[in-house]
Each structure stands twice: as C-alpha cells, then as structure tokens.
Amino acid sequence: MTPASLLQLMWLASPALPVGGFSYSEGLEAAIDSGQVSDEATAGDWLQHQLQLGLARSELPLVAAAFTAWQAADGERIGQLNRWVLSTRESSELRQQTEQMGRSLLVWLRLREGDDPRLALLEALKPAPAWPVAFALALAQSAAPLADSLHCFAFGWAENMVQAAIKAVPLGQNAGQRMLARLMQDIPAACEQAIARAAADERQAFSPMLAILSAQHETQYSRLFRS
Length: 227
Fold this sequence. Notes:
Helices cover 70% and strands 0% of the residues. It is mainly alpha-helical. It is globular and about 45 Å long.
C-alpha cells in the first residue's frame, strides 16, 4: 500500500469524518439502560459480540462486496447491495442512521472527489445510499487493498462505539483504550471471515436482541444518542 493510500484510510477511519457517527450508539445505550451493560467488562463483551456476530457476518462482507462492485462500476450490483443493507435495518433508528450517514458521506465525497463518475451511481440509490455502501466507494477511491480497507472500516466502527461506551456507561479514557485493544485483537479475524463470505456471496444479519433494544431506545426516557 502506498503512503497516499494509507493516509486516505487513516482519514476515513477518523472520528472527525463529518458524517455524524459520534451521535449514534447502535443499541448500546439501550443495553446500558436495560442493565445488560454496566461496566468496562460488560461493555467490552457487548462490543466484542457485536463485532463477531454483526460486523463479521453482515457489514464487513457487504463492504467487501461493494468494494469490488465499485471497482468495476457495476451499478446493478451496487443497487442490489444497497437494498440488502436497508432491508437488514430492523428499527427506524437503525434505518435512519445508515441513510443519514450515507447521505453525509456522499456530500463529503462530492467535495473531495467531485469528478468521480461513480458518485452519480451512489447518488442515484433510493431512498438513500446506505452507509456501508457509500463507505465502500470511499475505500475504493483510496486505491488501498481490500483487506486493509476492511480493517479501516472495522477500526472506525470500533473507535466510535468505544467512545459511545465511555460517554454512556460512563467509563474513563483508560478503560476505553483497554476495550479498543480487545476489539483490535479480533478485527483481523473478522476481516478474514468477511472476505471469505464476500467471495461466496454469503452474508447474514440476525441480531434479534439488538433489534429489540433499538426499538426500545426509540421511546427511552433519557438518552444521549440517536440510536
């Protein structure tokens, strides 16, 4: 990977990326409210399970498939993948999250890479480009290898979720770093699984407890996050 590609991945993984990711907890806040997450250990377990049972089976294989489709500028395939992502969002909050972040990334990509003809394909996705599909285009634009690109997506998710746990549990910064270290140990294996699943066109999205908690979060009395 070239230094330019590495810098692009670092940029994309940064929590400063203007897509609003910091405002979402992806059900974690509801798990805290229900008592399932209450300290560093349980928060770390929750995020580790979400990585292994969610991202490794769903989002990461989807990003890998979309990455390849964007390289080929295959609009039909991109449309199929985008519809699949939206169909897996089982609560209105999770659906709104992936649509809002996808739209925001589209705006940023237009400012950065406005002459890329693939942006027209991304903008044409209805009702909105899903976040993983939009992010896959940004990864493809970086010219980085697929495996490194998936590590970027996974680490960006991990850092955002750890920050959500620090704010909502609440936890200290050192606890957050320990949790991030746990997730980093599992990210390489999750990315390897994702590449294999993408090659076989096998993805699955089955996390019923997360869907229930997300629905409950919509009417939660006091909350910090939008999901």
